[in-house]
Amino acid sequence: MTTSASAPLPASVLEALARYDTPTICNAMEIVAPERRLIGYTVKPLVCPFPTLPPMVGYARTTTIRSVLKSGLSAEEQSKRRIEYYEYVGTGFGPRISVIQDIDGPDVGYGAFWGEVQSNVHKALGCLGVITDGSIRDIPQWAPGFQALAGSIGPSHAWVHAESFGGEVRVAGMTVRSDDLIHADSHGAIVIPYEVAAKLPEAAELCGRRETPILDIARSKDFSLEKLKDALKRSAEIH
Predict the structure, then answer these.
(1) Sign of CA dihedral 52, 57, 60, 6
(2) Among 207, 216, 204, 217, which residue's Cα sits nearest to residue 238?
(3) Best CA proximity match to 160, nearest among 95, 67, 86
(4) What percent of the chain has pLDDT over 90?
């Protein structure tokens, strides 16, 4: 779908960020925003059925779901809520990433919100993928190119339904608000503050330059402890 609002960042910034994997973005964040070293990214493992897909960078669409308890809404109210949810997901600036918290507590992941239908619908609505601590299913029928990071894979959707959307969620230790900028790949995800986004590609390149002398000697047939010490010294001098 087309966007209906001006994005807070140029598309070129998102494209530049997508050239790096998420661990590299985390490294770069330590340089440009060291105060976020312990916050803003997933800290619990998530299942990624499509590890070869490239990194995705987009603005969050946040939702909470539950599946153990049946929705208390009437069929008519549920239909209205579903349309409102799709309107929320499919409007605003993009590209978008769906971030969904399962609020079933000890039964998290009991029922899958995501499968063949939702992955294809959300892709058509302008989403690049989903990050959820809930479960997903229908992996062979999943929308092509639509990334997924999930808490688990399961067979049934039980009574799954969207409980709320547009508010703050917490998935795998990462707190996300609607419209937050997200970078994610098979390793996990990180929230990128708007004000530092444009600085991250340069910082990522700096991280790479600092790693190069260390990796070169570590991979060399002439490796020695003395050469490693020298490489570490040269790495520290790169700015």
Answers:
(1) negative
(2) 207
(3) 67
(4) 97
